[in-house]
Design a protein that fits this description.
The chain has 737 residues and is mainly β. Helix content is 6%, strand content 37%. The strands form 10 sheets. It has a 13-stranded parallel β-sheet with strand order 1-2-5-24-29-32-36-40-43-46-49-52-54, covered by helices on one side.
Length: 737
C-alpha cells in the first residue's frame, strides 16, 4: 500500500521520537556531563570557586570531593600561593568512577606554590653588610635575593693534620680561630669523604677540641653497625677522611659578596650584597614550609603547569644534622636496627610527595629554589609519572622514586612508574652527595629522555642494597633508562667520588640502559675516578647498549665486582676503553672504543637524547694516535706507548730521576692547538713542562685527568718533562690539530 508523503513523514517522526525516548531511558545511556571547572586564586575566598569568584585551594578540594560522575578541573589563577602547610590530597580527592581530578594552571597563568618566608626590614651596618630580624619560628638555612641563591658564609678547607676527626670530636679549634668565634655553636662543619657528605653543627669548643651535635656526629662516625660493613672506611674518623671541606655560618666568615650568616641568639640574618643589589628594594626569601603538595593514597589525579618554590628541608638544621649515606639519603636517630643494606635510611624532604598513589601524573611543572628535593614518589606508588617538568637550583636531588625495602608487601611495591622528558640542572647545590634521579627497589620503571646537567655526583641512580644477604633477592626488574642526555656531572670541584653518570645497584633482570648520551663525567679529576655507566656492587642481568659516552674521568663502563653477574655491554660508542666486565656471564661485544671522531650513527643517537635533543660535542682528531712514543726510562712494563693506546685505564711510568721525560714523535711537523695530558692513576706527574719545537709551557701542580694545554705551535714532537726530580707517569696524551 502506498501512503501519501505527509503520512510517511508523520510515521517517521513518531518512530524517531519513540527511539530517542527509549534510548534516553535505557540504563547507562545518559549523556556524560562535561568536566566541572573550579577556580582558585592566591587570595580566593568563599565557596563559589568560579572564574569571577575564585576560592582558596582547600575550598575547591572540598567541592571536587562531591563530584562522582565527571572529570574535575581545579584551575589555579596566576600568582604565588604562600603555604604554611602542604596542600594535601588523600583518597577522598581521587578521580571517581573512571574520571580524573586535575589541578592545573588556568589558561595563561603561571601559579606557584611557595614555602618561602619574606625577610624584610633590612638596615645597613657600618661594615657594608645588611641585617634583618627574622620572624619567630623561622630559621634561615638558605637565602634567595631576587631569586639568586646566597651562600652561607664559609671559610677555607682544614686539612686532617689540623682538624683531626675522631669518634667523639675534632681538633683544630685554635689553629682555625674557631675558639675565638663569638657564636661557634651556630657554625657547621661540612665534610666530604668519597661519595658521602656530612653537615654537623658544632656543639661546643674546649681549648683546641670541638664537639658536635648528636646524633649527627655519631651517625657520621664509624662503629654504628647501622651501615654497610665496609662503609666505616668512609666515615669522618676513617683513614680516608682528608679534612673539613669548610666550616660555615659564622659571622667571622662573612667576607665575600653574596654570603649570609644566621645568628640564632639575636634572631638576625646578615648579608653582604653582591654588586648591584639594593637591599631596600630586593625581595629576600628563605624557605620555611617543608612540603608544598602531599598526595597520599589518591588515584587518578593529575597535577599540571604548577610551580613549586622555596620549600624547606629542616632536618640538617637540627641535632640530626646531615649524616649522608648515599645519593642524598641520611642516617638518622640515636639508635636503630642493625642494617647493612640501607633499609632504614631517610630520604630528604621534598616539595611534592606522592605516597601510595595510583595513576598520579605530575606534568609540565616547575621546581626551583628549594632547600631540599623536588619530588618523591614512594610507599607503593604505581602507574604514576613525572614528566616534562623542570628542576633547577635545588639543595638536594630532583626526583626520588621508590623505597629501600628489597621485598616489600605488594601494596608497598613501586611498579610501572615513569620519569620522562624532564630537565634537571644544578640540583645537589648544598647536599652534594645527592643525585638527579634516584630509584630504589622499583619494577618496570621508565627513566626516558631526561636532560641532566651540572650535577655534583651521579645523575641517575637505580637500585639499592649492595651485596648484603638481605638485599640479594628483591623486586628489582625490567627497568629502562633510555635516551637521556647527561652532561657535566660528578663535578670535580664538589669533591664527590666513586659514582657515575648512570649508576646501578642490585640484581635487576630485564633492565636496559640504552641510547643515552653521556659527556664529561668527572672530567678534569685529580684521580682515576668517575665513570660513565657504573654497574656497582651486585648489579646483575643488565644490558648496556647503543650509548654514546665521551670525556669520562675513569671507565666508560664499570662492572668491577665478581658478584655482579651476567651483564652485557653491546654496540656502544666511546673515546676510551675499559677492562672486561667482572662477574660470571658478563660480556662486552661490538663496542666501538678509543674513538677520536664519533661516526654519524653515534651523532644521531646523541642528538636525539634528552628532553629536547640537542647539540653533540664531537670528539677531536688526535694526531698522537699514529705517533711514536719514547720516554727517558721505563719502570716495569709501563711503557711509553701506553699513553697512545686510547685507554685512560693504562699508564706509562718512568723511573724517579732528574729531568724524567715522555715524548711523542708525530712523524711530521703538524699545526697543534691543544694538548690533553691525562695523569696516571696515582696522580704522579706534577710540576712539568710541555715542550714543542716552538717553545715551552710550564704546568705547576699535579696534572689532572686531563690538564688542557692551549698553544699555537708547528711541531713534530711533544715532550713532557718534569721540572725537578720525580717520575713522569701518564694514562693518555692527545694532540689536537
Amino acid at each position: 500500500m502506498n501512503l501519501p508523503m505527509n503520512a510517511v513523514r508523520a510515521t517517521a517522526a513518531v518512530a524517531t521520537t519513540a527511539f530517542l525516548t527509549a534510548l534516553l531511558a535505557a540504563p547507562g545511556a545518559q549523556a556524560t556531563p562535561g568536566a566541572r571547572s573550579l577556580y582558585v586564586s592566591p587570595d580566593g575566598r568563599g565557596s563559589s570557586c568560579t572564574a569571577a569568584r575564585p576560592c582558596a585551594p582547600e575550598a575547591a578540594r572540598g567541592l571536587a570531593r562531591t563530584e562522582t560522575g565527571r572529570d574535575v578541573r581545579v584551575l589555579l589563577k596566576d600568582g604565588t600561593y604562600n603555604r604554611d602547610e602542604p596542600l594535601r590530597l588523600g583518597a577522598a580527592d581521587s578521580g571517581k568512577n573512571g574520571h580524573t581530578i586535575t589541578w592545573t594552571a588556568a589558561p595563561g597563568a603561571h601559579p606557584v606554590l611557595s614555602g618561602g618566608q619574606d625577610i624584610t626590614g633590612w638596615h645597613r651596618e657600618d661594615d657594608g653588610t645588611w641585617t634583618a630580624h627574622v620572624p619567630a619560628g623561622v630559621t634561615p638555612r638558605q637565602l634567595f635575593v631576587d631569586g639568586s641563591r646566597a651562600t652561607r658564609a664559609r671559610g677555607e678547607a682544614c686539612a686532617a693534620s689540623t682538624c683531626d676527626a675522631t669518634a667523639t670530636g675534632m681538633t683544630g679549634a685554635t689553629a682555625t680561630g674557631i675558639d675565638r668565634w663569638q657564636r661557634p655553636t651556630d657554625a657547621e662543619a661540612v665534610i666530604r669523604v668519597r661519595w658521602r657528605d656530612y653537615h654537623c653543627r658544632i656543639a661546643g669548643v674546649s681549648g683546641d677540641t670541638m664537639t658536635f651535635v648528636q646524633p649527627c656526629w655519631t651517625n657520621s662516625a664509624s662503629g654504628t653497625d647501622r651501615t654497610g660493613p665496609a662503609w666505616d672506611s668512609t666515615a669522618v674518623d676513617s683513614t680516608r677522611y682528608s679534612g673539613v671541606a669548610f666550616f660555615e655560618n659564622a659571622t667571622e666568615l662573612l667576607d665575600q659578596p653574596g654570603e649570609f650568616v644566621w645568628e640564632s641568639k639575636s634572631r638576625t640574618v646578615t648579608y653582604l650584597p653582591r654588586k648591584g643589589e639594593n637591599m631596600r628594594r630586593a625581595r629576600t626569601v628563605t624557605p620555611h614550609t617543608e612540603q608544598l603538595l602531599v598526595v597520599d593514597g589518591a588515584h587518578d589525579v593529575t597535577v599540571s603547569g604548577i610551580g613549586f618554590a622555596y620549600a624547606a628541608y629542616r632536618q640538617p638544621g637540627t641535632d640530626e644534622g646531615y649524616a649522608g649515606m648515599q645519593a642524598g639519603l641520611t642516617l638518622t636517630g640515636a639508635t636503630g636496627p642493625v642494617d647493612h643494606a640501607g633499609r632504614y635510611y631517610t630520604k630528604p624532604s621534598a616539595a611534592v610527595t606522592v605516597r601510595g598513589g595510583r595513576r598520579v601524573s605530575i606534568e609540565s611543572s616547575r621546581f626551583s629554589h628549594l632547600g631540599g628535593a623536588g619530588a618523591i614518589l614512594e610507599a607503593g606508588t604505581k602507574d604514576s609519572s613525572l614528566t616534562r617538568s623542570s628542576f633547577t637550583d635545588l639543595s638536594s636531588g630532583a626526583v626520588y622514586v621508590g623505597d629501600t625495602e628489597p621485598m616489600p608487601d605488594a601494596s608497598l611495591a613501586g611498579e610501572r612508574n615513569t620519569v620522562a622528558y624532564n630537565t634537571i640542572t644544578r640540583s645537589g647545590v648544598e647536599y652534594t652527595d645527592s643525585v638527579g634521579i634516584w630509584a630504589g627497589y622499583e619494577a618496570g620503571l621508565t627513566v626516558d629522555h631526561n636532560s641532566l646537567d651540572h650535577l655534583p655526583y651521579s645523575a641517575i641512580s637505580v637500585g639499592w642494597g649492595w651485596n648484603q644477604p638481605e638485599a640479594r633477592k628483591s623486586v628489582l626488574r625490567d627497568n629502562k633508562v633510555t635516551d637521556n642526555r647527561i652532561t657535566d656531572v660528578m663535578e670535580v670541584a664538589q669533591q664527590q667520588h666513586d659514582g657515575g653518570a648512570i649508576y646501578t645497584q642490585g640484581a635487576q633482570p630485564g633492565t636496559v640502559l640504552s641510547g643515552n648520551y653521556i659527556n664529561r663525567s668527572a672530567y678534569g679529576n685529580t684521580e682515576r675516578d668517575g665513570n660513565g655507566i657504573y654497574l656497582d656492587e651486585q648489579s646483575s642481568h643488565i644490558t648496556v647498549e647503543r650509548n654514546v659516552i665521551t670525556r669520562i674521568g675513569y671507565k666508560w663502563v664499570s662492572n668491577w665486582a665478581d658478584y655482579g653477574i651476567q651483564n652485557t655491554a653491546h654496540g656502544n660508542w666511546t673515546d676510551t676503553a675499559a677492562p672486561a666486565l667482572g662477574g660470571s656471564g658478563s660480556v662486552m661485544t661490538d663496542n666501538l672504543t678509543g674513538l677520536d671522531r664519533l661516526p654519524a650513527e653515534a651523532l644521531a643517537v646523541a642528538a636525539r637524547a634528552g628532553a629536547r635533543g640537542g647539540q653533540v660535542e664531537q670528539l677531536r682528531t688526535d694526531l698522537a694516535r699514529t705517533g711514536t712514543a719514547t720516554q727517558s726510562s721505563t719502570e716495569g712494563t709501563a711503557t711509553a706507548a701506553l699513553a697512545l693506546d686510547a685507554d685512560t685505564n693504562t699508564d706509562t711510568r718512568t723511573l724517579s730521576e732528574a729531568g724524567a721525560w715522555w715524548q711523542v714523535d708525530l712523524g711530521a711537523v703538524r699545526h697543534v692547538r691543544q694538548i690533553e695530558v691525562w695523569n696516571d692513576a696515582s696522580s704522579t706527574t706534577a710540576g712539568f713542562d710541555v715542550v714543542t719545537d716552538d717553545g715551552t709551557v710550564h704546568v705547576s701542580g699535579k696534572a689532572l685527568r686531563p690538564t688542557l694545554v692551549n698553544l699555537d705551535s708547528h711541531t713534530r714532537t711533544v715532550k713532557i718533562v718534569t721540572s725537578g726530580t720525580g717520575r713522569v707517569a701518564l694514562s693518555q696524551v692527545l694532540v689536537h690539530p
